[in-house]
Every structure is written in structure tokens, then in C-alpha cells.
């Protein structure tokens, strides 16, 4: 994931912002007895996760899903798969596994949420629902140049989204978060429709970092810089997630990206270990191959 990449990550201030004043309110208003955490990578293919799969692995998804409890399914951005493919993914994975598929680019980047996008959304969901209970949360990622001038499209899209299917949204144009009047209207819209506001933690785009949750789900897309500071950043996230757990958060979805993706499983394993130690989770810690160590990666 090259989005937000920088040449000198040691020069970036990675300090997490303070929580938005309404975040704790939202967590307390939506608190329940449930607490679930899903951590995963962006891809499962061997070409990207070099060194992760043991020699002789016949099915990458089958092995991946025994190491992680979720996957951020980016493949669905590039093509709309038929129902049969989702059924196959469902059958290959354990009972507790969840998929978090990205909406197709025709919806977000080509039609750009225009009024004629409805049939494409219906076609996409017709296939995706074949994941059944393993469908975690669908997410929408808009193009960098999709600006608040088209806010009315967002309103129409969000209000017409089927309420039984969880949705999270990510905006990359800086004005969505740095124009106060726009951000306030966006947060209110998402909150009213129970849509999650995705948090993107990337070195080169600190301008779109925010700590505003709009429901009881924290959907975080973490982009490492292939630098030792990645681990310190994850430690900071552990502290923040502890705070949110105390405030009543129901679910955490945390997906690890890297410009060199082969390091994603290693970072994820470290993060899961810290979650187990500090938040009382009991997640399986992914196994690493012997040659996948911090000495070889940094």
C-alpha cells in the first residue's frame, strides 16, 4: 500500500491525536456487553506475503485463516466476484473468521456515488452476502479528489445503504476532516445512520488523521513505514484502544498494511501479542517462519 508513503519516516510526528470530544459520548451511548477484536492483513496471496507461508502450502487462504481471524478484502475493489467465489471463500475458512471487503471501484471511483450507482451496489452485495455470518463490515474508500462539494452524493448513498449490512467509510480529501463545518455534518450523518468512520494512520497523510468514532466500531487501517518506529506506533494504538475499551467499545477492526507487504504478518503478530497482554483478548498469535525476524526486515 503506497498511499501516504514517505522517504524519511523518522522525521514524522506519529503522535496520535487526542480523542474528538464526541468519541467517548458515542462509545458510552452504544456500549454493550460485547467486545470483539479482528486483526488482519490486506492480502493473503503468497506473492505479497513472502516468507509467511510454509513450504508446501497448497491453499493460501486456508492457511492464512488459521493464523488470523480476519482479512481486509481489497480484491473486491478491482472486480465484482460472482456469488460462487464468495461461497468458496466461506467454505475454506474457520467458523470465527471474518471478511471485510472493499466496495468496488465502479462505485467509489468511476460512478463516484452518483445517482445511478444503485444497481452496481445491489449487484456487489448480491454476491458478498454469500459470506453469510463471516461478512464483517463492508467498507467504502473514496478517491483522493472526491471533495465535499459532492456531499449530497454521500448523503444519498449513506441513507440508502441497507441497514442490516455494516458499512464503514474512508475519505481522503483533506477538507472532509479539516473544514469544521463539513466534518461536523459528516460525523452527524454517519452517526445517525450507524456508519463507521474509518481511521487511517499513514505516515504521509497526517492531515486526514482523526479520532472521531461515529458508532461502537473502530475500523482502523494502519499503514506501516517499514521502519522500526512502526512498533512504537502500534504501542500507542494499544494504549488508545485500552481507553476505548474502558469507554465501552464493542468492536475493533485493525488492518495492517505495509509498502513492502511481506512485513505485515510480523507487525500484526506483534500487535496481537500486545492486545492479548493489555486488553485481555485471547487471539491466536500468527506463526512466523524462522527467517522472518526483525534482523532481516529492518
Automatic annotation (TrEMBL):
<protein>
    <submittedName>
        <fullName>Uncharacterized protein YecE (DUF72 family)</fullName>
    </submittedName>
</protein>
<dbReference type="Pfam" id="PF01904">
    <property type="entry name" value="DUF72"/>
</dbReference>
<dbReference type="InterPro" id="IPR002763">
    <property type="entry name" value="DUF72"/>
</dbReference>
<dbReference type="InterPro" id="IPR036520">
    <property type="entry name" value="UPF0759_sf"/>
</dbReference>
Amino acid at each position: 500500500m503506497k498511499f501516504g508513503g514517505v522517504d524519511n519516516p523518522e522525521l514524522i510526528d506519529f503522535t496520535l491525536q487526542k480523542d474528538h470530544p464526541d468519541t467517548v459520548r458515542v462509545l458510552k451511548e452504544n456500549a454493550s456487553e460485547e467486545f470483539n477484536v479482528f486483526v488482519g492483513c490486506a492480502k493473503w496471496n503468497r506473492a505479497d506475503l513472502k516468507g509467511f507461508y510454509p513450504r508446501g502450502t497448497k491453499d493460501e487462504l486456508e492457511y492464512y485463516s488459521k493464523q488470523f481471524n480476519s482479512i481486509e478484502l481489497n480484491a473486491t475493489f478491482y472486480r465484482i466476484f460472482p456469488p460462487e467465489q464468495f461461497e468458496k471463500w466461506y467454505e475454506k475458512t474457520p467458523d470465527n473468521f471474518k471478511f471485510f471487503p472493499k466496495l468496488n471501484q465502479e462505485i467509489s471511483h468511476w460512478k463516484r456515488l452518483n445517482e445511478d450507482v444503485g444497481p452496481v451496489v445491489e449487484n456487489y452485495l448480491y454476491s458478498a452476502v454469500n459470506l453469510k455470518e463471516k461478512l464483517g463490515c463492508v467498507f467504502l474508500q473514496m478517491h483522493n479528489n472526491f471533495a465535499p462539494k459532492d456531499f449530497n452524493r454521500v448523503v444519498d448513498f449513506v441513507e440508502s445503504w441497507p441497514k442490516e449490512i455494516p458499512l464503514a467509510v474512508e475519505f481522503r480529501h483533506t477538507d472532509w476532516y479539516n473544514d469544521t463545518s463539513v466534518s461536523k455534518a459528516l460525523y452527524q450523518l454517519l452517526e445517525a445512520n450507524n456508519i463507521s468512520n474509518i481511521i487511517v494512520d499513514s505516515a504521509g497523510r497526517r492531515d486526514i488523521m482523526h479520532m472521531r468514532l461515529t458508532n461502537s466500531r473502530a475500523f482502523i487501517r494502519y499503514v506501516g513505514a517499514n521502519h522500526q518506529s512502526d512498533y512504537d506506533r502500534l504501542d500507542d494504538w494499544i494504549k488508545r484502544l485500552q481507553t476505548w475499551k474502558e469507554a465501552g467499545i464493542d468492536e475493533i477492526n485493525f488492518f495492517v498494511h505495509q509498502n513492502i507487504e511481506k512485513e505485515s504478518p510480523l507487525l500484526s503478530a506483534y500487535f496481537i501479542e500486545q492486545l492479548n497482554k493489555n486488553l485481555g483478548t485471547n487471539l491466536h498469535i500468527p506463526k512466523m517462519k524462522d527467517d522472518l525476524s526483525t534482523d532481516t526486515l529492518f
